[in-house]
Amino acid sequence: MNTHTIPERSAVAEQDTWDLSSLFPSVDDWEISLSQLPTLADAAASYKGHLADSSETLLAAIQALCKFEQTAEAVGIYAHLLTAGDGGDSANQNKYGRYLMAATAAEAKLSFIVPEIQAIDNSIIEKWVTNTCFDDYRVWITKLLRMKPHVLSEKEEKLLALQTESAQTAYKAFSMLTNVDLDFGIIETAQGTVQLSQTTWSLLMENPDRTVRQHTYQQFYSIFDAHKNTIAALYAGSVNQDIFEARSRGYTSARQAALFPDNVSEMVYDNLIDTVHTNLPMLHRYYSLRKKVLKLENLRHYDVYVPLVSGVSRKTPYNEAVEIIRQALAPLGSEYTDTLCSGLTGGWVDRYENKGKRSGAFSSGGYTGYPYILLNYKEDVIRDVFTMAHEGGHSMHSWYSAHSNPFMQYNYTIFEAEVASTFNEELVFNYLYEQGDESMKAYLLSMRASDILATLHRQTMFAEYEKETHRLAENGIPLTVDELRSIYRKLLEQYFGPEMVFEDTSDLEGLRIPHFYSAFYVYKYATGISAALALADRVIKGGKDERDAYFTFLRSGGSRYPIESLKIAGVNMEESTPVQAALDKFAGIVTQLEQLLL
């Protein structure tokens, strides 16, 4: 019997780890830059009280701020990656801790800059920034000025700043309660005993043994049921905090406050919900298909995550996965694929699991150095090929943004972040599907249906829940546990349709979602996958113009607001067309699955 052992970090081959020398040639060089942060912050802080003196003074202050922030970003990414690679190493913990202390102290010194710039008379600063010497900073300043109507007096801003930490109390208490204090017990499976937790929950819900899924579900939600009033009070407190902050700054609602910085219309949010509602019959048809394929007399809430197609296996060594990605992404041209694949094999990626390494995957691209990728790649897990392509999409987005923009405007928004990554996944799906036999095609279609459902339908349901809870609270209706459960149960019944049989505790799901403590965030997952699928289809079916438009989007960074960048790429998220196209894609997959599985 083969035994899988997880190696120590020191035992991992160097070529399988990321090369951090693109950030700093050595740890000593990192130490030097870390030690420079207080001096760089002091240099920028020396302009306090004088930003309105002249355009030259303002420019000098922003240049000093830019120098500090660019150095601090590189120092922070380096320390973060060390910790992600081996969080158990005390030396890594020490470096990250020292970076955080230095950055926090510097941010306190520099907190005056934004409000002081916003205090300058618009007619004056708008004239100043027309000078070419502000070319690298004009977008950043213009975005600051747009926020000006919602900036308060210095004393009021200080009061709001003082309650920043206390404003996180609801989320911190929720996180500690659900991740640390609550004991969910153990679950017996054919593979052994599993400690039930927020992390193992999703794996147990995919267990092929229905009895295991049922016991897991009932046991999990019985714990939430025992603490439902406390958790409901925490979420209500979070909603009320959102409303307090929005009203303090003069927004009409908490949702408007959340969407305003990205210049996203509330119409985008409502169009998403309305379009998904119109297409719910196809989602219900998918659940009907699931019931038939699993041969169930009735479909339960604990039956919706188990794979529809199992028993398909494929080994894909790391370098073979890189070549699959090269071939799949060929429509984007050789510059894109050569850059990405060279990075995947040449220092961008920390490839495999080791003790102390962070789980999952992420991309960490800054203005300096490589756009690094953390993976825990397993050659016998097909999904890991998609994960590599996904994180590669993030990294190439960062690569083009950093190479096409000055530092102060290179960062793109979360609204855009999932587009390039999901775009790559779609191209890899198309490539593997064309290469696969019937069983592999069924497996890929099943996986793709689940991914679209989780990212588009489910996140839209979450977004609708947030909209309704905030609307009620803003209209003076208390968010009691019964009120919250009632809202969520209606949404469950609406989205899952008539085939689903719910448990008495099913509506407690609304009390366990951590994203709800970052209000009006989850809708971006749904708009992101909609834009990505539409753009992938556009590039594959189009020619040079469509590809060039997509690269204009990748190069935009933070130079434009996200809706504008996506319009240039070829999708208008203020219309329902991209969302409808994504839902049509889902409908086509469901139809194909019906033909293959029934």
Quickly list its features:
single chain; 598 residues; mainly alpha; three-stranded mixed β-sheet; two-stranded antiparallel sheet; 3% strand; globular
The chain-level mean pLDDT equals 95
- The number of distinct β-strands equals 7
Oligomer: single chain
Given helix and strand content, the structural type is mainly alpha
Distance N to C terminus: 37 Å
Q: Approximately what portion of the residues adopt beta-strand conformation?
A: under 5%
> Largest sheet, order of strands side by side?
4-6-5
Rounded Rg: 25 Å
Helical percent range? 55-70%
Number of helices in the DSSP assignment: 24
Overall shape: it is globular
Low-confidence stretches: none
Largest sheet: 3 strands, mixed
